[in-house]
Amino acid sequence: MLKYTELVLDHFKNPRNMGRMEDADVTATEGSIACGDMMTVYLKIENDRIVDIKFESYGCAANIATASMMTEVVKGMTIEEAKKITWKDIVERLGGLPQIKYHCSNLAVDTLKKAIEEYEKSLARK
Ligand code: FES
Ligand code: FES
After folding, report:
1. Is 15 a pocket residue for ligand 1 (Cβ < 6 Å)?
2. CATH code of domain 6-125
3. Boundaries of each NIF system FeS cluster assembly NifU N-terminal domain copy (predicted)?
4. Ligand 2 atom closest to Cα of 101?
């Protein structure tokens, strides 16, 4: 049995910002090389600021919890601030994660980063 912190369990049982976003400005789906699981991030961006974020996870409890915490951390941040977020920041905010579950938090942050890349690509096309 893996040991999760109370905060991890809370975010797993009551994920924040989970679900689809119909009017997202960017959407990105990423898969984990480590486990093959996938997740999607939706961003609503105004004046280079993340005004809303949602996620869908097809991963495990640790992925749902870290994705949930990640959305809380980056909501309201500028794109530049959000780019600096690392999976370690999220794991720290959750009070830790079993080491074999680190890749699940990587997946959460990688999907965010991919969504930000998509946003920047869409700006470059304008
Ligand atoms: Fe996929 Fe954990 S191995 S949910
Ligand atoms: Fe696949 Fe956690 S084991 S996301």
Report:
1. no
2. 3.90.1010.10
3. 4-122
4. 2
Q: Distance, CA 106 to ligand 2 centroid (Å)?
A: 9
Give yes or no: 60 in active site: no
Q: Is the Cβ–Cβ distance between 94 and 65 less than 8 Å?
A: yes
How many C-beta atoms surround the C-beta of residue 47 within 10 A? 7
Predicted complex ipTM:
0.81
Task: Tell me if residue 38 falls in helix, strand or coil.
Answer: strand
- Is the C-beta atom of 35 inside 6 A of ligand 2? yes
35 is catalytic: yes
Burial of 13 (0-12, 13-18, 19+ CB in 10 A): exposed
Q: Give domain limits for the chain.
A: 6-125
| Helix, strand or coil, per DSSP, at residue 45 | strand
pLDDT digits (tens, 9 = 90+) for 83-104: 999 999 999 999 999 999 999 9
60 lines ligand 1 (CB under 6 A): yes
Bridge-partner residues for 82, per DSSP?
none
- Would you say 98 and 4 are in contact if contact means Cβ atoms under 8 Å apart? yes
